[in-house]
Amino acid sequence: MLQYFKDYPANLSLSMALDMGANLDEIDRACRDLRDSGPGLAEAFFEAWAGAGDRLVRAAEADEGAGRRYSAAEKYRRATIMYLTGERMPEHGNPARIDTYDRLLTTFRKYLELGEVNCQRVAVPYQGSVLPALWVPASDAAAPAVVHFNGLDGIKEFLFLTGFGSALNRRGVSVLFVDNPGVGEALRKHGLHNFAEAEIPAGACVDYLESRPDVDPERIGMVALSLGGHHAARAIAFEPRFKLGVCWGANYDFAARLRNRVSGSAGQPSVPHLFEHLMWVFGTSSLEECVEATRDFHLRGILDRITQPILITHGEEDQQIPVSDAWSTYDGCVNSARRELRRFTAEEGGEQHCQIGNMSLGTDFMADWIAEVLMPVRP
């Protein structure tokens, strides 16, 4: 992971941007004056990245006005990345953050439309509301598909821009990138908060996929990253319609990790203002309430329910979640038809959280594994 700043959340965010295909020169022009800043640069970081996004939008609008749709689409894509990356950093109630989130939704939509990108906005019916999602089909015929949830602080546009959808499509698999409860539009626009029983929103996604003629209902899998290491395992344990699960980064006992964070003994935070972010995600007004709301965020006594194939990937030098969580998850899946743990090392790359900094190592491996399970080669 590129160590451009002196602050872990800033370096994590920058590396995520690069994994989405951001332009390093545009990043450097926006951020070079911030390189020597230590912790506490969240507001300046946000303003720098949002400002870079604004500049790209102006250039995109000029291209669009001149009829250069593909050039405009490319600039809208990079503007989305700049907005998305900056939006992670301030406190969630910051009015400028709220406005920037709306701008990234607009620029992403323009990128899809002008660039004729294989990605459709859809809405998954869910408990009187919806889970906003992106549908990336592999073909018009009935194909295998995976549901892909976010982690604690990601959004569906990030998942799409990493290229994982294209990697799956090339292998004949469709993907539904979902803003599950607690993230993205589900949280920001529909007030849906995160909770431990991931099989409930995941089951709603299976219901939706089963209604689509371009999905084979007998070949649906579940993927989720970071905090989703809990969600993916939990979902397939209690939702038998899933034919596989992928934990893109293990998360064996989030409840214990949160208690450790509150006591000051845990790993690096993924975002500044972490405790405020957690209270927002889980819909609580105090840390004490947050700890109580997350008491069931663990996989103890659950993993032996999993009979489907399961893949756990993890970076050996993950600074947020120790690799021991990956081993605990793997060891618990004693009844899985095919359990596999893929650890990424510093020597090969991908050793950080969810392979951020070199995510294609993780996405290619996961896409190959998913295709092998859902589309086995028959003799």
Give a quick rundown of the structure.
This protein is an alpha/beta fold and 379 residues long. 46% of the residues lie in helices and 14% in strands.
Write the layout of secondary structure elements.
Blueprint: H1 8-19, H2 24-31, H3 42-65, H4 69-87, H5 95-115, E1 120-126, E2 129-136, E3 143-149, H6 156-161, H7 164-170, E4 174-178, H8 184-188, H9 199-210, E5 215-225, H10 228-238, E6 245-248, H11 254-262, H12 274-282, H13 287-293, E7 310-315, H14 324-332, E8 339-344, H15 359-374
Parallel strand pairs: 3-4, 3-5, 5-6, 6-7, 7-8
Antiparallel strand pairs: 1-2, 2-4
Question: Can you offer a commentary on this structure?
Answer:
- This protein is α/β, with parallel strands linked by helices and 379 residues long.
- It has two domains: 8-115, de novo design (two linked rop proteins), CATH 1.20.1440; 120-374, Alpha/Beta hydrolase fold, catalytic domain (Rossmann fold).
- It is built from 15 helices and eight strands.
- It has helices at 8-19, 24-31, 42-65, 69-87, 95-115, 156-161, 164-170, 184-188, 199-210, 228-238, 254-262, 274-282, 287-293, 324-332, 359-374, and strands at 120-126, 129-136, 143-149, 174-178, 215-225, 245-248, 310-315, 339-344.
- Strands 1-2-4-3-5-6-7-8 form an eight-stranded mixed sheet, sandwiched between helices.
- Strand 5 (215-225), helix 10 and strand 6 form a beta-alpha-beta unit.
- Helix 3 runs antiparallel to helix 4 (69-87), helix 4 packs antiparallel against helix 5 and helix 9 (199-210) crosses helix 10.
- The longest helix is centred in the N-terminal third of the chain and has 24 residues, at 42-65.
- The radius of gyration is 20 Å and the shape is globular.
- The mean pLDDT is 96.
